[in-house]
Amino acid sequence: MSYNQHEYPVLSRMARDYLAIQGSAASAERSFSSGGITDTARRGRLGDELFGQIQKLKSAYRDGRLKAQDEAWLHVQSFPGTSNSKI
What we know:
By secondary structure, the protein is mainly α. It has a domain at 45-78. The protein contains four helices and no strands. Helix 2 (25-38) packs across helix 3 (48-63). The chain starts with 8 loop residues before the first helix and ends in a 10-residue tail after the last helix.
């Protein structure tokens, strides 16, 4: 790549920028693997929309964007007569 960088400087810089981008094969493989776990033989009747929603939830929990403890606390707070302080 460096042997033509003086003859084609703009193309050389563009190639360096473009070729430096890593492929996303690992994240795609993780998504397909996670989808395979969700779509087992016993859950074969899941519709496309519900399947997608489950995958989004799993991703949010895994990435830390959603926490089960926080969700449970919001649910507890919705009960009548519950105090507003955390347990």
